[in-house]
User: Fold this.
Amino acid sequence: MIGIIGGTGVSSILNKGEEKIINTKYGKSKVLIDNENDIVLLFRHGLKHNTPPHRINYRANIYALKELGVDRILAINSVGSLKEHIKPGTFFVPNDFIEFTKMRECTFYDGEDGVVVHIDVSEPYCPEMTYILKDVLNKRSYEYSEGVYVCTEGPRFETKAEINFYKTVGDVVGMTGYPEVILARELGMCYASLCSVSNYCTGISKHKLTVSEVFDTIKEMEEKILKIVEDIMHCNYEKTCACSDALKDAVIK
Assistant:
């Protein structure tokens, strides 16, 4: 079973299935279950986009997907570009990340049960799913880049000084990619991210950044996003990655 995590502007195109509330020990998560296609749809901001990125219950969301039998996750994220050659209206596929978040619960292993875990994240995104995602993008001739995703706390946009720093270490900036990727890894789930480049970041853009600019660009990309998701849903997976073995040699006994 595959889980699709939708973000900004995506709930309008991925909205089929039976709505269900999943109760976990980390809180509640609302999902749409498409039993016909073995798909679980989850909207991290809520169906009405009323949860800001720093208030999302990432642990409940990922744990709920795991309890429903999801073993692969395709996350859809909106990002701002740190580089002029990564243009709004194109896609971005992360192969690594750097995070500058501050207040988020970012692990299932906080030591309360006496277990200390240090997972390896030398390859944080599932190589198999990432390969398939890039193959889909190539076959559809959709322009995309790949590189380092910088995650910030939000909900505000970044300052010019912050952007000047971030562009020395990364390629795009978003607010939702972390800790999703790590939580999925801790539970042995495959995780890949399809990022929609919605804007140039502050200081790179020639004008003041607005929320409407972000949503307008994503609206224009909706049809492409839906086609990519449909292609991924119908791909034949041959699990060759080691994502499910993430806890091997990671637990201090």
